[in-house]
Amino acid sequence: MFDWVVSTIEGWGYLGVFLLMVAENIFPPIPSEVIMPLAGFLAGRGDLSLALTILVGTLGSVLGTLAWYYLGRAIGEARLKRFAARHGRLLTLAPSDIDNARDWFQRHGAAAVFFGRMIPAIRTLISVPAGLSNMPFWRFLLYTVLGSALWTGVLTVAGLVLHENYALVADYVDPLSKLVIVAVVAIYLWRVIRWKPH
């Protein structure tokens, strides 16, 4: 995958960065931790503009999250509750859990969206509860843009500073990303095993 990301950005420039960041937010296995440091390295080499690279990466990231946000809105809370009533073990949720999650998200949704944009796997999934809870679009967009711009900027500048060693960013961040994903899967499986209807 690393070679494919490199060839896409080197061949397509800003469009490659944009499309990869859209894809990264729709298909989480494509890591921003590889995309943006490489783009930062190319900016440091003079092939791309740093500011434009961060802007394009942020736009791609934001656009990718919108699909999940609108999926959450399309499913809706009532439909999800009916699904949970029938298939609670699969979701590890009862209808009452959805009420609790909605209440929590209404209290902490802005922070969840902002910080969630910087956490592997969560940055894709956080858009769904935002849509489910009918978080106002402008609010979702604002915190998504802020969180995405910060994360994209940090990764891009890291690639710029490290020059040819930009891949070190992925070497340090990627194991942590994998650990988070493994933890999310392990927690889900634990909940499936322990789940009891209530």
Your description of this structure?
This protein is mainly α and 198 residues long. The chain has one domain. It is 83% helix and 0% strand. It contains 10 helices and no strands. It has helices at 2-12, 14-26, 32-44, 50-75, 77-91, 95-116, 122-125, 127-132, 137-162, 167-194. Helix 3 (32-44) crosses helix 9. The radius of gyration is 18 Å and the shape is elongated. The mean pLDDT is 80.
Derived structural class: mainly alpha
Mean pLDDT, as a whole number?
80
The description of the largest β-sheet is: none
Helix content: over 70%
Spans of 5+ residues with little confidence (pLDDT < 50)?
none
Total individual domains: 1
Assign an overall shape.
elongated
Which band does the percent of strand residues land in?
under 5%
The count of strands amounts to: 0
Q: Rg from C-alpha positions?
A: 18 Å
Number of helices: 10
Distance between the termini: 44 Å
What multimeric state do the chains show? Answer: single chain
